[in-house]
Fold this protein.
Amino acid sequence: MFDRGTGGQGASSDNRESYDDRLNHILAAATDVIARVGYEKASMRQVASAAGVSLAGMYHYFDSKERMLFLIQFRAFSALLSTLKEKLHGVDDPVEQLRGMVRNHVAYFAANIAALKACSHELDSLSGSAYEEVRQIRRDYYALTRSIVERILAQRPNGVAIDHHLATMCLFSMLNWLYRWYQPGRRRSPAALANQISDQFLNGLLGSPATRNGSTG
Amino acid sequence: MFDRGTGGQGASSDNRESYDDRLNHILAAATDVIARVGYEKASMRQVASAAGVSLAGMYHYFDSKERMLFLIQFRAFSALLSTLKEKLHGVDDPVEQLRGMVRNHVAYFAANIAALKACSHELDSLSGSAYEEVRQIRRDYYALTRSIVERILAQRPNGVAIDHHLATMCLFSMLNWLYRWYQPGRRRSPAALANQISDQFLNGLLGSPATRNGSTG
DNA sequence: TGTACGAACGAACGTTCGTTCGTATTTCAT
DNA sequence: ATGAAATACGAACGAACGTTCGTTCGTACA
């Protein structure tokens, strides 16, 4: 909305590519710095230096530090949500849908571990309309996941009642806390990690292996 | 170690009480402010004002802002670990031990929701020996919890292998992420929340109610 | 009454922060 | 070739930060 004056002269594709490339480059550097030291301690000077750009030059791409964080979070959550929608297409079994959701989430953030931290840890670092805009995507992501959880719970034998909201938040807890301890490339592949999280969420510690299906990979 | 110069003239008990009370009062105010705005954004001026103390007066109780956060985290994790050890005493069934652990954790932080955030969200805000000292307590807490998880997994039918570390981290994820969404006094009592988290962790979404025991409260 | 000391304070320190300004340099349609 | 727009930069800004300094107040003990 603020980036690139919306007045559209159909600039040469060379320029635009160069502009977008540079923007992506700066955002990637910013994501790394924020993941390492946190949003508040990440200074614009530090990001500029990491990106190989002057301090003042940063303000050609964002009008503020907060806007920079917004772009990082907006892009990450948007990508996460849209790839999830794609992957759910054509899958009917809610259990298989849930496994797909976990696979998608883990795969995305295993490939972008810095983005995971810049999103999970800095959820409250935005304010005002920037915060609300990101929050809306997160809400959509939550609603989609919760609908899967509800379908799973609906086909379950009537036992102790399970709160839908709580169950969904337990799942997000496991996924969002990953940035604290998971190191891609050590011990577990993203696919294996996703499988174990799904198993854990669906069957728990005591769950009988009989109820489990499709979990090699 | 830094608080109260160790050179001991046997000060009157009146003085000492007053000193400790004031220290606790300031730490409580600091915990609230940090929980609300985050450690980096929480200025010493803001904490001083919230505690009703002058800015310079703060430095009679800590020699730095970091030391202040250290005291908050050290006290919280120490209390958590020691109460856990107490409550596990005399309990043999590992499943019941785990339920006790979750109850203890949820109860403590439901009563100190600001402390939960100041601990969970600011795990990396300390550095050097202060960080290491807190980390050691967290390690002990983790080791104790993991030993319970291992005993549960040991008496489980041999099915799909479950990684002990991953399983333990899933539990801590659910507990540590609570500060993001749980509001004490709304909808769920701490005891009911603890029960549902235990159920979720032990039996998962698909777990048969038959394997569940002792979960009314 | 005089001395010593912990507790608390207002004021100021030096540093770092996010941001802005004025000005070069490059790009490119005309 | 030319002029305007886009891009980049060094320098500087005011504000806020954590911390320190010198002082004052109240009280316990000689």
